[in-house]
Design a protein that fits this description.
- The protein is of the alpha/beta class.
- It has one domain: Rossmann fold (3-Layer(aba) Sandwich).
- It is built from 7 helices and 8 strands, in the order ααβαβαββαβααβββ.
- The chain has an 8-stranded mixed beta sheet with strand order 3-2-1-4-5-8-6-7.
- It is an enzyme of class 2 (transferase).
- O-methyltransferase that catalyzes the 2 O-methylation steps in the ubiquinone biosynthetic pathway.
- Pathway: Cofactor biosynthesis; ubiquinone biosynthesis.
- Keywords: Methyltransferase, S-adenosyl-L-methionine, Transferase, Ubiquinone biosynthesis.
- InterPro entries: SAM-dependent_MTases_sf (IPR029063), UbiG_MeTrfase (IPR010233).
């Protein structure tokens, strides 16, 4: 994440929520509801890519993972429990402080860094994740290129982001912020990327998209994978060839 990709206003917005990040009924409640579904998708892609047994508790043992825009560690901690050596990076120092404190309380060794991804020591990772982040950066193309540069040759990159549709504007921005489901100012609909736009950025960075699925509301479960991509979608990429 070079200097052209971090938006200071976005970093400040999410940094202000740091103390509340791990409260499932607080300002990050929506992320807590999304996280199990995102984890299910990530696990599915891990198992398919590395031919892992779905019953294996630590499918990432011996592998490294990088979570970019990690917040206070909502995804980084489950990746660590899956056996990965996890590095998390976030633009907001407040988030990293909360992430370190929570990981310590859980007995998890996660390497957290505040600031630019490009400032990390040179390294590549078997798994690179970035959930609900690309729509908040100042330069999405540069951001995706930096993510791709951190991906190991046989690695896997998994992203999620809202889609730029009329429905997402109505539900994710206007309705969700009005009723307090997400904090006001969280989303700028004009920054949302359609799947074809994000795919173009990924291909421009030398990767290929190998899977994509919708993430949509479910009356029974809160959210579900598959079906409509009108609100949100996840995709998986790897190096060409």
């Amino acid at each position: 994440m070079n200097a052209a990709t971090i938006d200071p206003q976005e970093a400040a917005h999410f940094g202000a929520l740091a103390a509340d990040w791990w409260d499932p009924r607080g300002s990050s409640a929506m992320l807590h509801r999304l996280n199990p579904v995102r984890l299910a998708y990530i696990r599915e892609q891990i198992d398919a890519h590395w031919h892992a047994d779905s019953r294996e508790r630590r499918p990432l043992a011996g592998r490294s993972a990088l979570d970019v825009g990690c917040g206070a560690g909502l995804l980084a901690e489950p990746l660590a429990r899956m056996g990965a050596a996890v590095t998390g990076v976030d633009a907001a120092p407040e988030n990293i402080g909360a992430a370190r404190a929570h990981a310590a309380g859980q007995g998890l060794a996660i390497a957290y860094h505040a600031g630019e991804l490009a400032a990390l020591p040179p390294a590549t990772f078997d798994l690179v994740t970035s959930m609900e982040v690309v729509e908040h950066v100042a330069d999405p193309a540069a951001f995706v290129a930096e993510l791709a540069a951190r991906l190991a040759p046989e690695g896997l990159m998994i992203l999620s982001t809202p889609n730029r549709t009329t429905l997402s504007k109505l539900l994710l921005v206007e309705a969700a912020e009005r009723v307090g489901a997400v904090p006001r100012g969280t989303h700028d609909w004009d920054r949302f990327l359609r799947p074809d736009e994000l795919t173009g950025l990924i291909e421009g960075a030398g990767l290929e998209v190998v899977d994509r699925t919708g993430l949509s509301p479910s009356p029974a479960r809160g959210f579900k994978l598959g079906g409509s991509e009108a609100l949100n979608y996840l995709l998986t990429a790897r190096r060409r060839g």
